Amino acid sequence: MTWTTGESTKAPTNINPSPWNTAAEHMKVTPRAGENAASGSAKLNSSVSPRGFVICSAAVAPAPSAVINPTRAARRHRPGVGESSSNKAPHLPLAVIAQAANQSILCASSVTHPIAPPHGLVGRCNHLFAAGHPLSAANREPARLALQFKIWMLLILAGLGGCAASGERPELAPARWAPAEVQHEWQPGPNEQAINVQAGPSGFDNNPPARTARLKYDLPALIDLALGRNPETREAWEAARAAAAQWGISRAPFYPTVRVDSQSGYERVIDQVPKHWGTLKNWRSTNLLIMNYDLADFGRRDAAALSAREQMLAANFQFNRKIQEVVFAVEKNFYLLDAERADVAAAQAIVRLAITDRIAVEKRHTAGLATRPDVLLARQREARAHYELENARLGVSDAQAGLAVALGVRVDTLPEVESFGGQPIPATLSGAVEDLIGVAMRERPDLAAKVAALRSGDAEVDLARASMYPRVELSSYYGSHAFNYRLSNPPTPQFTAMAPEYAASVAVRWDAFAGFEHVNSVERAEADREGARAQVYQYQLDVASEVWRAYYAFTTALKKYQYAQSLLEASQSAYDSNYGSFNHGLATIVDLLSAERDLADAKYTMVGSRADLLISAAAVAYASGAIPPQAHP
After folding, report:
1. How many CB atoms lie within 10 A of CB 416?
2. Residue 23: is it exposed, middle or buried by C-beta count within 10 angstroms (0-12/13-18/19+)?
């Protein structure tokens, strides 16, 4: 609502009259303005010497056809005692509420010169009130109907647009974003954004490993690569960092909390008092510096910080164990890949032997020294050798996929891996199984993490017991309060001031009875601690059993490897003897093919026993908690 002022022939009797009182006094100048709203507005305009500007605002929705009676406002806001409304000068804010085209229009007019009727609703309003001509009843009804028609059309169009746009809102139609049918796959719509599964997660290097002067990676180089790129080590590392940050958070209650609270703004409040009402306009700004501190909490802070510290240590030990897991996974998959490649080499050798045997049988068949079934048996053996070769090649692909996962690289970017070749085979272990179990009890980081979790349980028990005691808190603040306000009725001068505000208090907070919550909290914390103690003992048993199994798996694999060497040598000698005897007619095709099959089995056994020996040696180191040289700090 906008108010304008004009000049009059008389001076006002009040210094700061209320706008509503002034408007009421002007209303009293006209005789019963409610009889004719338009004529009342004309009389009001004629009593003012225009000298200024025109402001007219129109409401959007239609208003009632009756014009607000200005005398009602006059009766509601009577002039003060001893004052006459007829003596008041009209040089005050004047509000005239009228209606044009059945709309609620608020106009304040003080035009000094006649103007031509402008175009538009606002301009017509200004012209009519400036000229003092009311809207006739004949013109009012068609205008009202036309305006209502336009408004209804706009509302209908807006409703249709809202209904069309409501389908894009998941809060209104959530089923639209789910699969449409139970038997068909879901597909994103044309305007829906699907997840880009090809884009890798940020923070990880998806590029292939950089090529170095060494074109092939040996086992130590692969371990270095895995420690830097495997996402499992990154996850464990971030978990340890988060636990360290949580320990820092738990230390926060040892320090005071300092907060700045600043509120500034403007408010206009209706002031209702007997027999009249007014408004309170207030600009204010409050700026406080608040400090709170726990003077005494009877061990709450110490227990919470100790629990967080033990959890941080547990996360660090889990990170160390994750490094050992990654190293063991790389070693295991490296040995498996080497074994699969050896299987391919053995299968290729068996294929060559099968081809040689078939050619020899065909020559004997051509010479009449072998039968047709002998040739078919030789061809059958050759086909089986090719089948086993393809199966061995599939094993290489599977081993490459496993090694890529252990390294933390995509399998299509797996670097060239050097063959284990003539690397030495471990001949024995450094100590007895009892010594290795003792080493595992001291060095296994995951077992140390379990012990740290147990100590965290002790701190949780102390925290639960401390919650039964009171807490002593210190609260204080200091700041300033600036304000600027005035009242409209009765009118007051504008007050402006700024004053300091400060306070300090000590509070004692104690939940003397909380429905046995404290007692049950202590019981739960003690039960959790005893459960953690049982987990530690169970984990010790598991660690000892793991070392035991790894130790005897190694000793057995070592003996099997030695027997596999002897088996390979004997099978090779038997095949050579049968091949020579077959060529001289002293052995049958069945003897030759049987010796060939035994030689193939011996080759595969040799490859498998060698891989088992290497993997079991790595498993002993992993079970005892040995840290690889690449992971030493």
Report:
1. 10
2. buried
pLDDT at 208: 57
- Return phi, psi of residue 43, to 5°: -65, -40
| For the chain, domain boundaries | 19-135, 219-255+297-419+426-471+518-631, 256-296+472-508
pTM above 0.85, yes or no: no
The strand pairing partners of 105, in sequence order, are 58, 98
User: Could you tell me the CATH superfamily of domain 219-255+297-419+426-471+518-631?
Assistant: Outer membrane efflux proteins (OEP) (1.20.1600.10)
Starting from the edge strand earliest in sequence, which strands make up the sheet with 471-487, in order?
257-273, 276-296, 471-487, 495-509
Give the separation between CA 498 and CA 285, rounded to whole angstroms.
9
Q: Which residues pair with 106 in a beta bridge?
A: 57, 97
Contacts of 325 (CB under 8 A, 6+ apart): 232, 622
pLDDT tens by residue, 346-388: 999 899 989 988 998 898 889 888 889 889 989 998 999 999 9
> What is the Cα–Cα distance from 633 to 630, expressed in whole angstroms?
9
Identity of the residue numbered 2: T
Contacts of residue 107, defined as CB under 8 A and 6 or more positions apart, other chains included, come to 54, 55, 56, 57, 96, 98, 125, 126, 129
| Separation of alpha carbons 311 and 239, rounded Å | 11
